[in-house]
Amino acid sequence: MPNSTEANHTLAARDAGAIAGIEKLRFGPFALRAGDGNGLIAENGQRLIDFSASWGAASLGHGHPALVEAVHRTVSAMPGASILSTIHEPAVALAEQLLRLTPGGADRRVWFGHSGSDANETLVRAIEAATGRKRIISFIGAYHGGTALSMSVSGHTAQSHSAPRAGLFLLPFPNCYRPHFPGEPGAVTLAQLDYLLQTVCPPHDTAAIIFEAIQADGGLLVPPPGFIAAVAERAKRHGILLVCDEVKVGLGRTGLLHAFQHDGVEPDLISFGKGLGGGLPLSAVVGPASILDRQTAFAMQTLCGNPVSCAAGLAVLETIAKEGLVDNAWRRGEQLTAGLRQLMARHAVIGDVRGRGLAIGVELVEDRVTKIPASRFCQKVVYRCYERGLLLFYVGMSSNVLELTPPLTLTEAEAADGLAILDQVLGEVAAGAVIDADIAAYAGW
Predict the structure, then answer these.
(1) For residue 3, is pLDDT > 50?
(2) Distance (Å, rounded) from C-alpha 221 to C-alpha 41?
(3) Do residues 310 and 145 touch, judged by C-beta distance below 8 A?
(4) What is the CB neighbour count within 10 angstroms for residue 237?
(5) 245-256 in b/e burial notation, b at 16+ Cβ within 10 A?
(6) In 10 A of CB 31, how many CB atoms?
(7) What is the pLDDT of residue 7?
(8) Is 195 a catalytic residue?
(9) Among 310, 443, 433, which residue's Cα sits nearest to residue 381?
(10) With the CA atoms of 225, 227, 228 and 232 taken in that order, what torsion angle do they form, in degrees rounded to the nearest 10?
């Protein structure tokens, strides 16, 4: 145990005294010293298997040679710092590659930003300006960002401090494990969508429907088959733009390059973030030129299209293709899902295992019949996992869903080792190894 002087100089103590609390989401005193492939090195030197990848942002893990080379090469001879008023190769090359990799019409453009938040904010602003329509349809449980406008079109309980925007209509996202209303969840939501469009949300003034192919922060909810396609059909029929937020689950994570491909739809606009930069700040919007070229100086930031971030993004896309990481995400996801379902037989607290590829949710409940969320148990599991050498976080509207979004480069052995740690921790927490006081300072969501 460190003495009081040493404790005052830990990273956690220094963090508490220097960095603003309003930008933190802490699950414990999780202090890291370095990254190492698909692992992380804690402040005390312990190696952790990374099942979070910084919420999916570290898509290639930590220190991948392709990413290191691209960043070093570009930062050594940076052609400026942005594309605001000049042009450089990394941004143009990345934009061209994104256009090749995403479906859509011939006349499309790419907008670059720093995070999924600014990407979603920009596309909403641009859509409204281009269409002249002021109504947006989103889903309860959606988390589209942390800026004012991106929060205002979200529907997550963690953002109840931010009021929804005028003209926003929220629909329940189908929850097949925990239906909110009688009837098949997808059909119920579609009926509500139809009723909205027939009454208080007329199509002639509705600009877009924004969706996630898997609702990530809402609890890794996978919609029922045919649901997203049915939403897309209604959007097309009524002349409403279909917008897909791929920020967290896109670019190979679900076992296809784009998560929306599982549903056979072609969105009008797509937002990317997190994994696109491999851990560096980078986001993008891909959509029609009629929207993204409509007005100059409309959504500009000084460091937009930063050459180092864009070079990293290009390296990420090239590495995903070169190393077969889409297929690896699917195979490792199948391994993890099978292993987690085996854990269900030994741990009654696991109520549901769901996801696609390496976007997996494990919902913890106090009782499988009542399905009461085991929120505090979930918090203790995440805390104890860190102590045992596994880093993961939790999500969900009730903070009771373990989220597994490891790097796309995760190996079979690392997946097995992570499952073994989780198995051990579930038993330890059930036996009282973590007390309430241990997690009292870490509210999480």
Answers:
(1) no
(2) 31
(3) no
(4) 10
(5) bbbbbbbbbbbb
(6) 15
(7) 52
(8) no
(9) 433
(10) 130
Residues 6+ apart with CB under 8 A from 340: 350, 353, 360, 362, 419, 422
Number of Cβ within a 10 Å radius of residue 84: 13
Q: What are the pLDDT digits (tens) for 194-249?
A: 999 999 999 999 999 999 999 999 999 999 999 999 999 999 999 999 999 999 99
DSSP string of 36-83, one letter each residue: EBTEEEETTS-EEEESSHHHHT-TT-BS-HHHHHHHHHHHTT---S-S
Report how far residue 61's alpha carbon sits from residue 54's, in angstroms, rounded to the nearest whole number.
9
Q: Are 424 and 390 in contact (CB under 8 A)?
A: no
Centre a 10 Å sphere on the Cβ of residue 391 and count the other Cβ atoms it contains: 23
Residue 124: pLDDT band with limits 50, 70, 90: very high
Say how far apart CA 17 and CA 39 lie, in whole Å: 27
Structure tokens belonging to residue 323: 């190393």
Contact 410, 358 (CB under 8 A): yes
Enumerate domains of the chain plus CATH numbers: 4-63+324-439 (3.90.1150.10), 68-322 (3.40.640.10)
On whether the CB atoms of residues 24 and 363 are closer than 8 A, the answer is no
pLDDT in the model for residue 418: 98
Residues 32 and 19: their CA atoms lie apart, in Å, by 16
Q: Is 108 strand, coil or helix?
A: strand
Q: Which amino acid is at 411?
A: T
What is the chain's alpha carbon radius of gyration, rounded to the nearest angstrom? 22
Q: Which residue in 143, 383, 386, 394 is the catalytic one?
A: 143
Q: Are 127 and 291 in contact (CB under 8 A)?
A: yes
Name which of 282, 313, 305 is nearest 82 in CA terms. 305
Cα gap 360→401, rounded to integer Å: 9
pTM over 0.85: yes
- 395-397-398 Cα angle (round to 5): 85
**Chain center to CA of 282:** 14
| Cα–Cα nearest to 70, from 305, 257, 278 | 278
Burial (Cβ within 10 Å: 0-12, 13-18, ≥19) of residue 335: middle
